[in-house]
User: Fold this.
Amino acid sequence: MPVLGQHQATEPTVFAKSRPGRQSSSMPDLDVPDVDPGEALPGVALADEPPALPEIAELDLVRHVTRLSHRNHGIDVGFYPLGSCSMKYNPRVSETAAALDGFRALHPWAPDEAAQGTLALLWHLEQWLTELTGLAAATFQPAAGAHGELCGLMLIRAYHEDRGDPRRTIVVPDSAHGTNPASAAMCGYDVVTVPSGPDGLVDVDALEELVDSSTAGLMLTNPNTVGLFEVEIDRIAQVCRDAGALLYYDGANFNAIAGRVRPGDTGFDVVHLNVHKTFATPHGGGGPGAGPVVVSERLAPYLPAPVVVRDGDGDDATYRWEHDRPRSIGRLHGFHGNVGVLVRAYAFLVAHGGDGLAQMSAKAVLNANYVAERVGDVLPLGYPQHRPMHEFVATASSVKQHGVRALDVSKRLIDLGYHPPTNYFPLIVDEAFMVEPTETESPETLDGFSAALRQAIIEAGENADLLHEAPTTTPVRRLDEGKAGRELVLRWHHGDP
Ligand SMILES: *Cc1c(COP(=O)(O)O)cnc(C)c1O
Assistant:
């Protein structure tokens, strides 16, 4: 079922399609005085010429953007096994809920009395998230996972400072998602790296050496970024607690454990959830995300303000924003976060129910293990000592003898009709292939993908050029991503827009 490999003729730009006088709309006759913009806006620098916008008829414009949209890959078009991104099916019920006028058209400045439905939804969503994490309270302001990390770390800082015990360091495993050390540094902390042991799990003896009275917290994701469950989580938590450090749970990988393990029960005080990965609205769909942060009782006073509260019970309950939060770290987002994504998440949770979520994570783990087994003889696990959870990280180091890299295998997968998995992450696995099928894929899709992946690895030994030249079926061949990225960074560095 190839979807990426369809050859498409080049699509000219909308400017090339422009013809003088063509238009997609007609404006009503002017019924206000015609003024000279120069006089109406004194002191504003106006261009001599109007901008050269394309002139195009509506149908031609619709065809143009529809053709362009077909070049994009999305979960509604095909399998998307991008590890660490949980690219699962986004149920239509979530979209329907988010499109309801009462949510969609609500003005962010609406008074609480006029926003009762949205406030009730957020309050109930908080109940779901605290129940799922085993914690006490939540904020919905963070706009994505990394933003949630910053928020959670600011809460940890506020907590320690409030106790007159400011601490300097955050400990992060070497397998962590890159955003973890970045968020800690952005929050003003020194980052200390704890190594993984030979089995891919945190080296707890090394952790014991590193954690002391200057440690503000440990940032951990569990299952960790090589897809393995930290079986020594109780000891890890104990080491941190004994030193007065807090435990931060990076919940972007919550798909593996939702409805089965609660971070709060394993000693964590703060969790961010990527609802745009775990609960509908797949991350990478290009739209907004939401990274709610859920905390224990002792961190709740510091949550960003306002928080949603309920007065009364049952049918008489009313909801309001509570702004008076003297120990709050302040605001992290305009208004109340990306509420549309939160509505989708709520619809997802209600549609599945608690037992549905437990089934979801079981199937996510099953699907990952199924693919790992199917490809294991040609693409072995980076850390085979433990069974992977919702994703697996395999090593393609065997293809290096043929002058082929993991990236070449991935590019070949495009020609075979599949979006590649994540490559070269985490950094601790050589030629890493990180595959996360998610729970929403059928056995047929998993079989098709596994066969394509096997084929690409086998071809590396038989016809390496096929891989070096891939992809050959896409409108654009290989991009020099490294070079383009470096140039972008340099332009920013020099202050160019
Ligand atoms: C995706 C991810 C993040 C970052 O989330 P964003 O929403 O992209 O900011 C952080 N940690 C882990 C483990 C992730 O997979």
Notes: The radius of gyration is 25 Å.
